[in-house]
Design brief:
Residues 32-295 form the ATPase BadF/BadG/BcrA/BcrD type domain. InterPro entries: ATPase_BadF, ATPase_NBD, Euk-type_GlcNAc_Kinase. Residues 1-20 are annotated as: Disordered. This is ATPase. It holds the Pfam family BcrAD_BadFG. With 347 residues, this protein is α/β, with parallel strands linked by helices. It has two domains: 4-141 and 313-344, ATPase, nucleotide binding domain (Nucleotidyltransferase, domain 5, 2-Layer Sandwich), CATH 3.30.420; 180-308, ATPase, nucleotide binding domain (Nucleotidyltransferase, domain 5, 2-Layer Sandwich). It contains 13 helices and 14 strands. It has helices at 22-26, 69-87, 102-105, 107-121, 131-140, 180-196, 203-213, 219-223, 229-234, 237-245, 249-269, 289-302, 315-327, and strands at residues 4-5, 28-35, 38-45, 49-55, 62-63, 66-67, 92-99, 125-130, 145-150, 154-159, 164-168, 277-281, 307-308, 340-344. The strands form three sheets. It has a six-stranded mixed sheet, sandwiched between helices. Strands 4-3-2-7-8-14 form a six-stranded mixed sheet, sandwiched between helices. β10 (154-159) and β11 form a beta hairpin. The protein starts with a strand and ends with a strand.
């Protein structure tokens, strides 16, 4: 069953920190996206939006308490110094940070980061979010609906603006159904079936797998010891799509099954009333027509009341939106201890 978390309210003292009148347009914010490829940070203002961006190439480390707040600050501090120098920003008013794994690995960030950013930059209003939430905010803003983030893994987030609903995102061993690793694994299973002479195999996928990984008996030894197994599995998803585009029935079936799984997750989190919006985001969309055409059919079947829309932006864009709304006191997305936590540091 998907998570369903009760809504909570931002601290009452937060309203005292809200810029008013002309101050709001000049108020500067810091927006951050922390993911598997490192940090991306933006400094901007309410009036001008994002002004300057910096990136790091190293993911934040994890420890006994999850995502390491001290390591995040070590990486973020020089980026912010460069950004404030470049933009001439004197005071940062608000921080919004989206982090991969925040829902389950965010204890250290929740405990340590608000105090650290206040001491370092004087920031007093901090929003910490799961990257699925910033993906939602980037794609739809503060509109009710559902967003499916589909890449190596797969997670769906939905809200009616009173509470969040989550489906999947359980990793390549327990879920992420329809994501890149799931498609790649299903394609490799079909290749192994063909190698063994079992039903359900695909000679086309076998040929592709051998071209990529070599003889099939060596595949387990290449795959199982790897710490990046999901990425290795997902790397085969484009080959499955290529075989489907060439008419291989097994590959076509894999992508149709993936489409059903993705639509299942979207339907599990999408509001059932009103006119919600549904958007897709993530690298899996590059798979193209062999996946997207059956996916559109499944979404139409499962969510006839919803409007399919293009995602407006990515998770960093979502962090910028949350930072902007928090700065002016207009955050409409529901807060939640695990998914979107808003903190006001005492002066």
């Amino acid at each position: 069953m998907p998570d369903e978390s009760p809504p909570s309210s931002p601290p009452a003292a937060a309203s005292a920190l809200r810029p008013t009148g002309g101050e709001a347009g000049d108020a500067a914010f810091l927006a951050v996206d922390s993911g598997g490829s490192g940090l991306r940070a933006v400094v901007g203002t309410v009036a001008r939006g994002a002004v300057a961006t910096r990136e790091s190439g190293r993911p934040v480390s994890t420890g006994a308490r999850g995502i390491d707040a001290a390591d995040l600050m070590r990486q973020l501090a020089p980026m912010v110094r460069a950004l404030t120098a470049e933009t001439g920003t004197a005071d940062l008013h608000t921080l919004a940070l989206g982090a991969a794994g925040f829902a389950t690995l965010g204890d250290d960030l929740r405990a340590e980061l608000p105090g650290s950013v206040h001491r370092e930059w004087g920031i007093r209003r901090i929003a910490l979010a799961a990257d699925a939430v910033t993906a939602y905010a980037g794609a739809l803003g503060a509109a009710p609906g559902a967003v499916v983030a589909a890449g190596t893994g797969l997670i769906a987030m939905g809200t009616d603006l009173t509470r969040w609903r989550r489906a999947d995102g359980w990793g390549h061993l327990l879920g992420d159904c329809g994501g890149g690793a799931w498609i790649g694994r299903a394609g490799l299973e079909a290749a192994l079936r063909a190698h063994d002479g079992r039903e359900g195999g695909s000679a086309a996928l076998l040929a592709r797998a051998e071209a990529v990984f070599g003889p099939m008996p060596g595949l387990p030894g290449q795959l199982y010891p790897r710490p990046d197994r999901p990425a290795v599995l997902a790397s085969f998803a484009p080959d499955v799509a290529a075989c489907a585009a060439e008419g291989d029935p097994v590959a076509v079936g894999v992508l149709r099954a993936a489409a059903r799984h993705i639509a299942d997750s979207a339907a599990a989190v999408c509001p059932t009333s009103g006119e919600p919006r549904v958007a897709l985001t993530g690298g899996l969309l590059k798979t193209g027509a062999p996946l997207l055409l059956p996916l559109e059919e499944e979404l139409t079947k499962r969510l006839p009341h919803a409007h399919r829309v293009m995602a407006e932006g990515d998770p960093l864009h979502g962090s910028v939106r949350i930072a902007t709304d928090l700065t002016i006191g207009a955050l409409a997305l529901p807060t939640d201890e695990r998914l979107l936590r808003v903190t006001t540091v005492a002066g």
